[in-house]
Amino acid sequence: MKKTQFARLAFEQTTNYVLQEASLWSGRCFCKPTSINIDITSRCNCRCMQCDIWKKDVDSELTTEQYKEIFSKLRKWMGKFNLTIGGGEPFMRKDLVELIAFASKNGILTNVLTNGILINEKIVSHLEQSGLNRIAISLDGFTPETNDLTRGIKGAFEKTLKAVDLLSGMKSGPLVTVSTIIMKTNLNDLVEMAKWVDIKGINGILFQPLNANFAAEYKHDWYNTNELWIDNYNDVCRVLDELIEMKRRGTRIINSIKQLEDMKAYFKNPNAPTEKRKCKVGMQNFCITPNGDVQLCYQMNAIGNVVRDTPINVWNSEKAKQLRKIIKFCKRPCSILNCNYSGGFREKAAKFASYIVKLK
Ligand SMILES: C[S@@+](CC[C@H](N)C(=O)[O-])C[C@H]1O[C@@H](n2cnc3c(N)ncnc32)[C@H](O)[C@@H]1O
Ligand code: SF4
Ligand code: SF4
User: Which atom of ligand 2 lies at the shortest distance from residue 51's CA?
Assistant: First the structure.
C-alpha cells in the first residue's frame, strides 16, 4: 500500500473513531461501522465443544453472485474497508477464493477466520494470487490431545499445523496469525504457543477468553455449568501475567496489555458490573449472517437484510436505532471478545495497522 493511501485511510479511520465516540456519547449514530463481518456459511467440518454453530440447521446460503453484489454495495458505502469472513468454516464454500479475489480487486481488505483443516497445497497457491490480507487460524491446544479434544475430531491438530506451515511458507501471501481460546483444557499450553509463534515467524497470536457457546441459547450463569471454564482464578492470572510480561518483552501477542488485564477481571467474575465494559457493538459492528441478515450484536435480532436493501439503509434503519438503545444498557460480558472488544483509540489504531503492516 502506498504511503499516501495509508495516510488517507488512517485519517478516515481516525475521523470515524471520533464520530463513533460522539455517537456513543449522544446515542445518535453519526458514524460508520468499523467491524464488518460476513459469516459466509453455517456449515462446519469441526464438532467443537465450545461452539454450537455446527449444530445449526443449514438454511439456504447466498450465491456467489449475491455475495459479489453485497461486496460492491459495501464498497460504495464504506470506501476502502476491512472485511472479515468467518462462519461456520469459510473453506466449506468452494467459491471462497473467488470471492476473496473479487473483494481484493475492488479495494476491500480481507481477513479470513478458519480452523485451517481444509487448507491444502492447491488452496494455498490460489490464496497467494487472491490478494487476501490476513488469515487467522484457530488452534486450541499445543498437543493433539488438548486441541482435538475440544475440536471434536481426530487429526485436527496435525492438519491445522500443516496449514500453518503451508501458509507461512508463502512468499507473497497474507499475514498469518493464530487464534486461541483461553480455557481449562489448554491453559498450560498457552505460554508455549506464544513462544512457538515467535520461533516460527508467524505474524502473531490472538487470545480469546472462553465465552458461552456460540449459537446456543444464552444463560446468565453459563460458566457455572461449562466444563471448559477455568474455575481456578489464580491459575488463569498466573498465565495471563506471564503473557503480559512476554508481550512487554516483544513476543508477538496481538491482544493489547489492557485487554489481557481486562481478561483477569472477566475470569474472576464474568458478570461483575464494570463501567469499562460498556458494549460498543451498536456503533461498530455490521455482521452479515449466511442469509444476508445484518446484526449489530450476534445475540440479538437482525436490523435488516443486505440482499433486499442497501447497507446504509440497514445501518440507519428504525430497527437499528431501537436496538442501539437496548445495547447501551446490555450487561452481558461478551464485549471482552475480540470481535466485540473496542478498547480505546490505541487499540483501534493497532487493529487497523495490523491489517496493513506486517508485524515482522
Ligand atoms: C466461530 S469461529 C468461525 C471460524 C472458524 N470456523 C474457526 O473456528 O476459526 C471464529 C472464532 O470463534 C472462536 N470461538 C468459538 N467458540 C467460542 C467460544 N465459546 N468462546 C470464545 N471464542 C469462541 C473460535 O475459536 C474461532 O477463533
Ligand atoms: S469454532 Fe469454528 S471450527 Fe469450531 S464448530 Fe465453531 S465454526 Fe466450527
Ligand atoms: S454485551 Fe454487547 S455483544 Fe454482548 S450481548 Fe450485549 S450487546 Fe451483544
Answer: 6
